[in-house]
Design a protein that fits this description.
about 1300 residues, alpha/beta, eight-stranded parallel sheet
Length: about 1300
């Protein structure tokens, strides 16, 4: 688009040809008909990685300015010290600021930032210059525009942009400046918003093209800036320009200064839809990577990074060199992590020039499509997914929901009230509802004070907040205190559409989700028809008029009290459930919530009855689509534990299925009241039983049933006694471990089943886990004692043998020892980042520990980099990852990918409730070339870990798992009927892009050209035979641990037959070798080659040194992957693995054809004439094995002699079969190049038929059949892959390159076409 783009850039400019009148600097508007910066930026982002400038402060320091320079003539008598006020230099030394902008632009920056990092009235107050804030921003923007415009004029094909820098100020809205008073703040949200609004208006007046809200260490400050920006845009739509947001992770904990994780930060600010989000400052490029990776995985927009030049040194300077920093940022680019890069503290124009060179030509990150859902955040992100089951909103921090909480707040005991919040979170609340509505309380002040306190408590504020009030001004006060993305509870149409829209826009400006009550001008909705009508009307207003994200809308269709004795109330619960289902089916994206305790309000004091009603209601409402509810976890009974008769009674009431249900439950309630008044147990009338029923009756059940009951009900009171009773029963439970693997695991299995079926809720599961932990904790000392005795016994045995007892293996846990130190191996276990569930992992740790494994348990919320660091530190033999929630799956994929990237080579175990063998096979295993195994439960962990660390069993076990996972992947891919594909152009843009400078091509072959080998001695080939495919030919397959040759002979099912078959094969093979009954022939060729697009061009040997001018003699045509895979994966073609011709690098390829089938026809004919089909098949199978063995031998000789790029390679036949060498030999007709017609090129290159007698049939099969052919690719970039299905655009392109009709190409490629040829 070149110069024409430039004409669109600047509002108010009159263009004449390609020159511009630069006298006006009015603000640019994306709404302006003359141009659209957003579109121009989109175009630039699409084709390159954009470069931002470096550190203004670092450059200013280089000028070594004195106080007089800062003050200038205008401020020479200013009462405050001005040295260090860099923003002021835009007024007093504009020449310096202009020079700095110019230097960064000349270095290659596409965007420069204004010198306004601290140009707010709040930050300027330190210099007594608050009144200059607007002027500073206007003039700074003009200076930056002057530099950028001049640079653009020099090269109109490359427009330069100005970003208005909006810094964090020197105050924090989320953090108290006083340790003694955590509720104190030195700035308010409103003060920040006012200051930011003034700054942004000045930047717009000065003519910036976009706004950059940066160095966000407190997200609440940033939200105030974003609030102000949105307010400006709403007041004047013509002022709207793109926004970039940049957070700051302050250390390797992965959190901002105000405590948010990277994921939580993005969730909190994503509502403004920035054109780019990223990280800057605090960390060097190397340290920033793990957090940048996380952001790149979750952000549905472009991502940037402009790190510091390393970490500060002892003198406060920055030492990272431009080249080193550029190299790391180039790795960002090659990993597909960034769309924009630059530098922060310590970076100069030299750094920016190096960075610009490093990313030149790099493919920008592909913005992933993030599945929409409700995402919230406290200090951590919380996603409401389909797998989330039911979200429990804690109600005990609501004055109307807890008498204790109300009493504490009314008495001013806010610190103690915070402990109520803590208890709610510990008991499983995933969101905290905070309500301060009381006639005798200043709700706004109380809300503000309480939220300031709880956001200072990480254990509490890690979960999202629901700001709850019937007074909207109280809601607003709450929103201004919380940095995370919260939920507003609630707004409604009861005051009309005008008030509703106004409130909704305010909520949206704060980035919050919203609960909409089913009220309108006529009042509360009670019937199904009214509920659905009001919700639909509100949905349309929010989505169509206000622009609300549908996934941020939560409807509360009113849970009203049932069984009141009033007939009109009987359908209330059923109508709520029906309305819930209707909302989920008709209002896309919307969620449904409700206050569950309202349901049973008429039965206050009868907790057992209320718990049962709530459980039944939730069971049916959740099945209808209820996503969340304000509920006291302690007021919900386990659905399956409710006596049958009472459960039936509650269901009749809730579902309004029986006209007499209300009378019966009222009668039941009256009996309950009388029984409780008489001192009886609650629930005594359940099921119609007469008299009181002892709630401890379960204690009379058999031991294992008692343990299961305690786990299901979450009752910890008796678990130690029961476990100890089991331990004393040595006959039933031989070891303490038997109790864990037996009744405890079975009980937790029941809990898992109930949870999965929606009959238990997360708080109840957490209680069950606590009981489990208590039981295991009781058993651990006895298991350690058992291990100590075993160690002593081992030492005694050693002494009896005359050996040094001190040398006896130590069994008890101790310092790192490795397997040679006496333990079975070291296992690092971790619950992955974002997940806090550890009960299953803990059990695995106990079980492994009891089997002599050294277990390093890293706990929960473990970032990938910490896991790998610990694994290296302790010399881990195995890494085990655990997770319960669905996002943990993505984190496990990330860990596997990082293990591959960083070279960690130990087996990876995957476990946890949300994991599966299918997901492990499809998503995790392909990321890592090492062993990846899904472990179903703790009882399997020892078997798997032992097999992985057994030198004899390892490879067979891993191969067995790999085969199973291959089948699962094939099954999964076959199930994707609607598999999506990328266009060929798009796939090429995401091609494998090797770093040829870091890993250049293999050296030149020792001998170029074609070599022919006739009558290769069979005895030289036999040792290279891989016998595993031989047994597969006869459909004999051993099972682990007797999988593969030679262990197949031990298999109880097929071992004997395999041995007989093998012995007979040996006799025939010996005959072939001894009597020369078969002849083996081979031809190989090594050629100069380079890639051109998707093809490989080969040159004559004599043209090796003159490739750029020489004419290729052969072209190997390639096919590229098109089927969509993970967003960060590349789309490969065989040509990607050969250095491009344009690079000037010399690369090479080899070709070969071998056969061991000369003479086979006569042998087979003799057997068939003798009606000996068995021997005929055996002869063919052996000839095939010899041909493959010759191919293996020849490839070895190529690597070590003919090409010679691995002259010192010493691998046995088994290692060769497992492809432990460098290089590959892909073949036409196989997954990397599925087109059989490419064999014709191969035959032409080698003159194969004339030189060896190996011919191609009409269908391009090789004759003799016992033949193998293919290519040789060398170097570290050469790896096998599968092209898979391809689309019509690639077939047409491929046919055009080959010069054949499309119909011919389709015929040969029919098996991989992703479309119907007809």
């Amino acid at each position: 688009r070149g110069g024409s783009l430039l004409h669109l850039l600047f509002r108010g400019y009159e263009s004449v040809g390609t020159s511009f009148n630069m006298t006006r600097t009015q603000p640019y508007s994306v709404e302006n008909k003359d141009g659209n910066v957003a579109d121009i930026l989109d175009a630039m982002f699409a084709k390159k990685i954009v470069v931002l400038d470096g550190a203004m402060g670092t450059m200013v320091q280089a000028y070594k300015l004195e106080a007089e320079d800062y003050a200038g003539e205008r401020f020479k008598d200013h009462p405050a010290e001005l040295k260090g006020n860099n923003d002021l230099l835009s007024l007093t030394r504009p020449d310096i600021i202009l020079q700095i902008h110019e230097q960064f632009l000349e270095a290659g920056a596409d965007i420069v930032e204004t010198n306004t990092f601290s140009a707010t009235s709040i930050a300027m107050a330190d210099y007594k210059m608050e009144h200059l804030a607007r002027e500073l921003n206007v003039e700074s923007a003009k200076l930056a525009r002057r530099a950028a415009d001049a640079c653009t004029d020099k090269d109109p094909s490359r427009p330069r942009f100005v970003a208005g820098a909006v810094g964090p100020t020197n105050r924090t809205a989320s953090i108290s400046p006083s340790v003694e008073n955590p509720g104190h703040r030195n700035v308010t949200f409103d003060e920040l918003a006012t200051a930011y609004k003034e700054q942004v208006l000045g930047l717009l007046e000065g003519g910036v093209h976009l706004l950059l809200v940066e160095t966000i260490f407190d997200t609440l400050n940033a939200k105030a800036a974003l609030y102000a920006i949105q307010e400006i845009f709403e007041e004047d739509p013509s002022a709207r320009i793109p926004i970039i947001i940049s957070g700051t992770i302050v250390d390797m904990s992965g959190r901002t200064l105000s405590g948010q994780t990277t994921e939580a930060f993005w969730t909190s600010v994503s509502h403004v839809n920035p054109v780019c989000v990223g990280l800057n400052c605090a960390l060097g490029a190397d340290q920033m990577r793990p957090f940048l990776e996380r952001l790149a995985m979750i952000a549905g927009t472009r991502v940037h990074a402009y790190p510091n030049a390393g970490l500060p040194n002892a003198m406060g300077g920055y030492d990272d060199s431009p080249d080193n920093m550029a190299e790391i940022i180039a790795e960002y680019a090659s990993a597909g992590l960034v769309n924009l890069v630059g530098g922060c503290c310590g970076t100069t124009p030299v750094h920016i020039a190096a960075i610009a060179r490093a990313v030149q030509g790099a493919v920008p990150r592909t913005v992933p499509t993030i599945a929409p859902t409700l995402r919230l955040s406290g200090l951590e992100r919380f996603e409401v997914l389909e797998s989330t089951n039911f979200v429990n909103i804690g109600e005990r921090c609501n004055i109307a929901g807890s008498a204790k909480f109300k009493r504490l707040v009314m008495n001013g005991k806010f610190d103690e009230a915070v402990e109520v919040c803590r208890a709610q979170v510990e008991n499983g609340a995933q969101i905290l509802d905070i309500n301060m509505d009381d006639g005798l309380l200043d709700g706004e002040a109380a809300m503000r004070k309480f939220l300031h306190l709880i956001v200072s408590e990480p254990d509490v504020s890690r979960v999202p907040i629901m700001v709850d009030s019937s007074k909207f001004h109280v809601v607003e006060a709450g929103l201004k205190c919380v940095q995370g993305k919260c939920i507003v509870n609630s707004i409604s149409l009861k005051e009309g559409e005008g008030a509703f829209v106004k409130q909704a826009r305010t909520v949206r400006r704060h980035g919050a989700a919203v609960v909409v009550m089913a009220f309108d001008e006529e009042g509360q909705a009670a019937t199904f028809e009214r509920k659905t009508s009001i919700c639909e009307r509100a949905y349309r207003i929010l989505v169509d008029q206000v622009g609300f994200d549908p996934h941020d809308i939560i409807f509360d269709p009113n849970i009203l009290t049932v069984a009141t004795g009033i007939a009109e109330h009987n359908p209330y619960a059923k109508d709520f459930i029906r309305a819930t289902q209707w909302i989920k089916e008709n209002l896309p994206g919307a969620r449904v919530s409700g206050g569950v305790s309202n349901l049973s309000f008429g039965f206050r004091g009868l907790n057992y009855l209320r718990e049962s009603m709530h459980s039944v209601f939730l069971y049916h409402a959740i099945r209808a689509g209820l996503d969340m509810g304000i509920v006291n976890a302690g007021m919900v009974e386990v659905y399956d534990e409710i006596p049958d008769a009472l459960r039936k009674l509650c269901e009749d009431v809730v579902l309004n299925s029986d006209d007499g249900a209300t009378d019966r439950i009222l009668a039941f309630a009256e009996e309950e009241r009388e029984r409780i008044a008489a001192g009886g147990a609650a629930g005594g009338a359940a099921g119609g039983a007469a008299g009181a029923v002892n709630k401890l009756a379960w204690r009379e059940k058999p031991l294992e049933e008692r343990i299961a009951h305690a786990l299901i009900k979450g009752i910890a009171d008796f678990i130690v006694d029961d476990v100890e009773q089991a331990r004393q029963d040595k006959k039933t439970y031989v070891r303490p471990l038997s109790i864990i693997e037996g009744p405890l695991m079975r009980g937790m299995g029941i809990v898992g089943d109930l949870f999965g079926a929606g009959k238990m809720f997360l708080p109840q599961v957490i209680k069950s886990a606590r009981v489990m932990k208590k039981a295991v904790a009781h058993l651990i000392p006895f298991m350690e004692e058992e291990k100590a005795k075993a160690a002593a016994a081992a030492a005694a045995e050693a002494a009896a043998r005359g050996e040094d007892p001190a040398a006896a293996p130590e069994i008890a846990d101790g310092a790192p020892r490795g397997r040679d130190g006496g333990n079975a191996g070291t296992v690092v276990l971790a619950t992955v980042k974002g997940d806090v569930h550890d009960i299953g992992k803990n059990i695995v740790g106990v079980v492994l520990g009891c089997n002599n494994f050294r277990v390093i348990d890293m706990g929960v919320m473990c970032p990938c980099e910490k896991i790998l660091e610990k694994a290296r530190e302790v010399g881990a033999d195995i890494i085990g990852l655990s997770g319960l929630i669905t996002p943990s799956l993505d984190e496990m994929v990330h860990v596997a990918r990082e293990m591959e990237r960083t070279g960690v080579r130990v087996p990876l175990l995957i476990g946890g409730a949300t994991t599966s063998k299918m997901h492990t096979a499809v998503k995790i295993a392909p990321q890592y070339s090492g062993a990846v195994v899904h472990v179903l439960d703790a009882s399997r962990s020892v078997v798997v870990a032992s097999a992985l660390l057994d030198e004899e069993d390892y490879q067979d076990f891993v191969d067995d798992v790999a085969d199973e996972y291959d089948e699962l992947r094939d099954e999964y891919l076959a199930s994707l009927e609607d598999r999506r594909y990328r266009s060929l152009a798009d796939a090429r843009a995401r091609a494998l892009a090797p770093d040829w400078s870091a890993h250049p091509p293999a050296p030149a072959p020792r001998t170029l050209g074609v070599q022919v080998m006739r009558a290769v001695p069979l005895e030289e080939i036999v040792t290279f035979i891989d016998w595993n495919p031989f047994f597969a030919t006869w459909q004999l397959r051993g099972k682990y641990p007797n999988r593969g040759y030679p262990k197949i002979f031990n298999d109880k099912d097929v071992g004997a037959e395999a041995r007989r078959l093998f012995d007979e094969a040996q006799r025939m093979l010996n005959d072939f070798v001894t009597n020369r009954r078969l002849e083996a022939r081979a031809v190989l060729g090594l050629f100069p080659a380079n890639s051109v697009g998707d093809d490989i061009v080969c040159f004559a040997p004599e043209d090796d040194g003159n490739r750029l001018e020489a004419t290729p003699v052969h072209t190997l045509f390639g096919l590229r992957q098109q089927a969509e895979n993970d967003p960060d994966r590349d789309y490969r073609c065989m040509a990607d693995m050969v250095a491009p011709r344009s690079s000037g690098l010399h690369d090479y390829v080899g070709a070969f054809a071998v056969s061991a089938g000369f003479g086979l026809d006569a042998i087979v004919a003799a057997f068939e004439a003798d009606h000996d089909d068995y021997s005929a098949i055996m002869a063919k199978a052996l000839a095939d094995r010899l041909a493959e063995a010759l191919a293996e031998k020849l490839h070895r000789d190529v690597r070590t002699e003919h090409w010679g790029y691995a002259p010192d390679e010493e691998l046995n036949a088994d290692s060769l079969h497992r492809i432990k060498y460098e290089g590959i030999r892909p073949a036409p007709g196989y997954p990397m190049q599925p087109d059989h017609t490419e064999k014709q090129t191969l035959w032409n290159m080698l003159d194969a038929e004339a030189s060896t007698g190996i011919a191609l049939t009409e269908s391009l099969a090789m004759d003799p059949p016992a033949s193998v052919s293919g290519l040789y690719l060398a170097g570290q970039h050469a790896h096998y892959f599968q092209v898979g299905k391809i689309q019509r655009d690639q077939v047409e392109d491929y046919a055009a390159r080959k010069g054949v009709p499309v119909e011919d190409a389709e015929r040969w490629l029919s098996s991989i076409l992703a479309y119907d040829r007809e």
